[in-house]
Amino acid sequence: MKYILITGGVISGVGKGIISSCIGVILQGLGLKVTTIKIDPYINVDAGTFSPHEHGEVFVLDDGSEVDLDLGNYERFLDIRLNSENNITTGKIFQKVISKERKGEYLGKTVEYVPHITDAIQEWVQQVAGTNIKQNGGDTINPEVCVIELGGTIGDIESMAFTEAFRQMQYNVEKEDFLTVHVSLILDPKATGEQKTKPTQRSVHDLGAFGLTPDLLMCRSEKNLTPEVIKKLSKMCNVRAEQVISVPDMALYSIPQHLVDQGVIKVMFKLLNLNLPIPPNVVSKWNNLAEKTRNCSKDVTIALVGKYVKFSDAYASVNKALGHAALASGANLKLVYIESSNLEEETKISNEEKYNSAWSELRKVNGIIVPGGFDKRGTEGKIAAIKFARENLVPFLGICLGFQCAVIEFARNILNLTGANSTEFDGSTKHQVVIDMPEHNQGIMGGTMRLGLKETHFHDKSSKIYNLYGKVDAIKERHRHRYEVNPAYVDQVEGHGLTFVGKDSENIRMEIFELKNHPYFVGVQFHPEFLSRPTKPSPPFVGLITYSLNPLA
């Protein structure tokens, strides 16, 4: 087993997850089987209770694990299906060690960071690295390389146990089986007109203080590093010049080929003692995608109406899925973020200019998507946007909460059920068209929703969405919700044209609706964005883009 540790320096958010994914892609292109681990040093057991404003979206895996959004990058790039064990948190490690202590497994010893916490980390990593994983197509692979991303930046107090664990681990395996990649930011202040390496030098110094030396120094910057800067980094950071890799800002799908061009394969072969034939086009799949992106000849404008729009990572997978679908249609995606609360009548009273601006933007788009979310804030704006899409025949896709809001809008304005609402927003409403699922509302927030891969069966084989999914009888998609459409209102809703074309395996829970006599008005209770891939876009998103480009398609 080969282990590749990815660490970060200077600041977080410079692209460790993307670089980890691209290294995995290159290794796959060389014929190696790759698995991956994301380490999040926070005390939380998982990402399930995080605010999207603080940490971005919560990504959901097949087994229902709520994890960091970087695992979504890994799945999309490597086309694999991960599980809860592929995401390590300090909370998980503490839980495991304390559980063993309570059972008396440490034989009366004092439980300490070293060796107990650090040993638990190494054991976890080695166990996951040796565990078979599934590819997206269903085949099982036995990994040969494990790419490990350590979240945060070197020097963070939260990650010290992990850096110590990897300091030990590099000596517990053969030298050619462990490689450290350090991703660091090179500043380019306009005032000086030259690239500044001092922050990266300090970051590498801090890494060395923890007993780790970078084998590859991945330097993120606005522009390519100059030869002088590479020479300086080589001298001051104790790495050879060929081990300093310049990674400037560029289009996503161009990164794998850029790393190949920078000589990453040669360095990895030398340090990992690999001797494999190198195909002429190691990352041809990504080159094809990059070329296709450059050749998109038409534009499609989609409005994303949500409550976390100031932080795009809150909708990372939705953004990616829209991009995948647009690329498949040969279109440039123009994504317009609209704060849902700005569409509400209350905003009109308090800030008419903001209200008018939001509605002006909404009226210009080709299609509308209302993604998932929680709590009451902004829901009336989402409902107003959905009403606009329904009445004006604008292609619409509602996901999770967007699905539920569409049912509420339909109940209010077509069924004339005054005050129809969800019990999440108004527990006293007479018409509870969306209700909580008691078994998933236990008063404990973490890990108690309806989570993970669930089956949906199609009940209307004349529907657009059935055709988009390839005319199969049943599909499996990932879920994350506590509320559902009230079965008591289903007959009324369907009687007026909003048909629930997909239901769960027990024919109880509503999973997909489609509105008759509308170009494309579809809602799904699940989160199809989590299984979208660059070369296999999610069907509901394909439908939204297709009909937004041509409502008569």
CATH homologous group name of the largest domain: P-loop containing nucleotide triphosphate hydrolases
Radius of gyration, in angstroms, nearest whole number: 25 Å
Structural class designation: alpha/beta
CATH topology of the largest domain: Rossmann fold
Provide a descriptive summary of the structure in words.
The chain has 19 helices and 24 strands. The chain is about 35% helix and about 20% strand. The protein starts with a strand and ends with a helix. It is globular, with a radius of gyration of 25 Å. The protein has about 550 residues and is of the alpha/beta class. The longest helix has 17 residues, at about 115-130. The protein folds into 2 domains: about 1-290, 3-Layer(aba) Sandwich (Rossmann fold); about 295-550, Rossmann fold (3-Layer(aba) Sandwich), CATH 3.40.50.880. The strands form 5 sheets. Strands 14-13-15-16-24-23-22-19-20 form a 9-stranded mixed beta sheet, with helices on both faces. The protein has a 7-stranded parallel beta sheet with strand order 6-2-9-1-10-11-12, with helices on both faces. A 3-stranded antiparallel beta sheet has the order 5-7-8. Helix 1 (about 15-30) runs parallel beside helix 3 (about 70-80), helix 5 (about 115-130) packs across helix 6 (about 160-170) and helix 12 packs across helix 19.
